[in-house]
Write a structure and sequence with these properties.
328 residues, alpha/beta, Dihydrodipicolinate Reductase, domain 2, 2 domains, six-stranded parallel beta sheet, binds NADP nicotinamide-adenine-dinucleotide phosphate
């Protein structure tokens, strides 16, 4: 059983990650911290969490916890991941763990000098539906992959939301652009080479609210589009010469749609659907993390992987600025 401390009273913690730890077989929630002690106490009471703190520093100093789950505005992730590691805590940090790939190097150094586990919370990589897509591609189920199509959009124009505040690391690519990229890299095992992109910023917020990119991988391309100001939609598909694969709810499985992967034949005559019932990807994420802490076998998302994913996001931003194809 690892003892978790929760850094902030963020919505994602309350809605998904705290309940997932409470359901998990190898973790308990021992503490929560907020900038506002009253908020921390309210959440602590709701989930029967024994310790509540009015500052993040107090939680990091608490001897009752082994690991910290960080769910702060994106611009604060790298700083607090390093502080938590330096306090001797294992760290599961929300995505994106940094706003730029080179900010991940100091996190790697902090991990290594403290001998702790640090991982970016890409819950999708723990969902068996993505393991299924990966094995179908590896087994040649669609022949030669030529194109991946990725879409993640929602419409949120609340000026107070962290996603719309530039100084806090808001923007579509930071918030959701990371998902089509990470799932493409995860499923194919391939790394990108070149990127071209169009990025639209909101004049009010100064953040990117629409980004479309063509990412060239060896032998195939990813065409992706993300937006924080378009109707809700999620889609990932993988198109080959002998068939194609679609994922109904690629990122918010079970919430956006059911957890299903469909393999379509080349001639549209047959299709095979793989269903994943009762999966909680957040629970799988925290259980995998706890196994890694216990030095058990686990496929935990690594900081090297974080760096590669962020290098791609950085390149998309560069391509949007330069209006040219950018190399990785
Ligand atoms: N993996 C997923 O499925 C998923 C889904 C949604 C979001 N996320 C990620 O989780 C993180 C939090 O997202 P969220 O939607 O849950 O955000 P949120 O509800 O706005 O929570 C952010 C929290 O950060 C703390 N905070 C510290 N300084 C702040 C500041 N200057 N302004 C605002 N809040 C501040 C606040 O906690 P206190 O007031 O308690 O200190 C606040 O509750 C983001 O990095 C996001 O990318 C991941």
């Amino acid at each position: 059983m690892i003892k978790w401390g929760i850094l902030s009273t963020a919505k994602i913690g309350i809605d998904r990650v705290i309940p997932a730890i409470l359901e998990s077989e190898n973790g308990i929630v021992a503490a929560i911290a907020s900038r506002d002690e009253k908020k921390a106490r309210t959440v602590a009471t709701r989930f029967a969490i024994p310790n509540a703190f009015g500052s993040y520093e107090e939680l990091l100093a608490c001897n009752e916890i082994d690991a910290v789950y960080i769910a702060l505005p994106c611009a604060m992730h790298a700083e607090w991941a390093i502080k938590a590691a330096d306090a001797g805590k294992h760290v599961l940090c929300e995505k994106p763990i940094s706003l730029q790939a080179d900010q991940i190097d100091p996190i790697i150094e902090a991990r290594d000098r403290n001998g702790v586990i640090v991982s970016e919370a890409f819950m999708v990589t723990y969902h068996p539906q993505w393991h299924k897509v990966r094995s179908l591609l590896a087994d040649g189920a669609i022949g030669k992959l030529r194109r991946v199509q990725g879409i993640f959009t929602y419409n949120n124009q609340d000026a107070a939301n962290v996603r719309n505040i530039a100084d806090l690391g808001g923007g579509a690519l930071h918030d959701i652009g990371v998902y089509p990229t990470v799932t493409t890299r995860f499923a194919t095992g391939a790394e990108p080479q070149q990127v071209s992109a169009t990025i639209v910023r909101d004049k009010r917020f100064g953040t990117d609210v629409y980004a479309s990119a063509v990412v060239e991988f060896p032998g195939f391309e990813l065409s992706m589009m993300v937006s924080t100001q378009l109707a809700l939609r999620q889609e990932m598909s993988f198109h080959g010469n002998e068939g194609w694969i679609s994922v109904a709810a690629p990122f918010n499985a079970g919430l956006y749609d059911s957890d299903t992967v469909t393999l379509h034949s080349a001639d549209r005559q047959t299709s095979q659907t793989f269903r994943f019932l009762g999966v909680n990807q957040y629970r799988l994420q925290v259980e995998t993390f706890a196994r890694a802490v216990a030095s058990e076998k686990s496929e935990l998302f690594s900081l090297d992987d974080s760096k590669k994913n962020q290098q791609l996001i950085d390149a998309i931003y560069r391509a949007g600025e330069s209006d040219k194809r950018e190399s990785m």
